[in-house]
Amino acid sequence: MKVLPIGLVIEGKLCVVVGSGSVAARKAAALLEAGARVRVVGKRFSADFAELDAVERVRAAYHKRYLDGARLVVAATSESAANRLVARDARAAGILVNAVDMPDECDLIFPAVTRKGDVSVAISTGGASPTLARRLKERIETSIEDAYGDLAAILKAVRQRAIEGIPDKHRRRAFFEKLAGDDFLEMITREGRGKALDVAEELLEEEMSQSRKVSLK
Questions:
Q1: 79 in Cβ contact with 23 (< 8 Å)
Q2: Contact 37, 56 (CB under 8 A)
Q3: What is the pLDDT of residues 33-50, one digit of tens each?
Q4: Contact at 8 Å (CB) between 68 and 95?
Q5: Pairing mode of beta strands 119-123, 112-116
Q6: pLDDT on residue 217
Q7: CATH architecture under which domain 1-110 falls
Q8: Which of 99, 51, 53, 94 is nearest to 71 (CA)?
Q9: Can you name the residues that pair with 18 across neighbouring β-strands?
Q10: CA nearest to 7, candidates 139, 161, 110
Q11: What is the spatial distance between Cα 123 and Cα 119, in angstroms, rounded to a whole number?
Q12: CATH 3.40.50.720 in the chain, residues?
């Protein structure tokens, strides 16, 4: 199964999970982490939903009307026939669908994801083996330092001003490469995010000042 790795923006969008067991709870939690509004449809909710207070729970048998307004639907019941019905209804309504353990019914699949702040690393096996994806995720998690999340936050904080204040694309690229380098990452680990942000701001001011001088020549 060939897939296109993309980041789907669902923050603030309605996503519907059909199912109320542990798998449905994991899918709902992943959607909440991505900032979605989550509605879960099921008759009996498992204990796995105890910590998911932000979820809208619909205690009812599935009906396609519960998909109205959704950007994404996840079919996560324990019955293949029910999941196929959900997938069919979602597609008929033009809604993207993920059907658990049924790659042929999916418009998209959920990768295994490890996060460090705004940095996300997704691992997919194209639906072949979620177990392998999870094992790879565990290995990758141990190799990515927490400082990468702080680094992403710092780069985000200065990005727009750098784009506007350093017109020359080569100088701008060099500036970003310096901030994304190992030396700056070590500074974050050693001295903390606040100090590193101050240094990034100083470097940005220097680059912007140099750019202004060049433009006046």
A1: no
A2: yes
A3: 999 999 999 999 999 999
A4: no
A5: antiparallel
A6: 58
A7: 3-Layer(aba) Sandwich (3.40)
A8: 94
A9: 41, 75
A10: 110
A11: 13
A12: 1-110
Give the pLDDT score at 215: 67
Report residues of the chain scoring pLDDT below 70: 215-217
Pair of tokens at residue 140: 């990758």
**Within 10 Å of residue 111's Cβ, how many Cβ atoms?**
19
Per-residue confidence (pLDDT) for residue 120, from 0 to 100: 87
Structure tokens at 144: 């990515």
End-to-end CA gap in the chain: 57
Q: Are 109 and 3 in contact (CB under 8 A)?
A: yes
Label the pairing between strands 14-18 and 72-75: parallel
Asked if 26 contacts 134 with a C-beta cutoff of 8 angstroms, the reply is no
Instruction: Give the strand pairing for 37-42 and 56-59.
Output: parallel
SS (HEC) of 48-115: HHCCCCCCEEEECCCCHHHHCCCCEEEECCCCHHHHHHHHHHHHHCCCEEEECCCHHHCCCCCCEEEE
Please report where in the chains the tokens 């790659």 appear, as a residue: 103
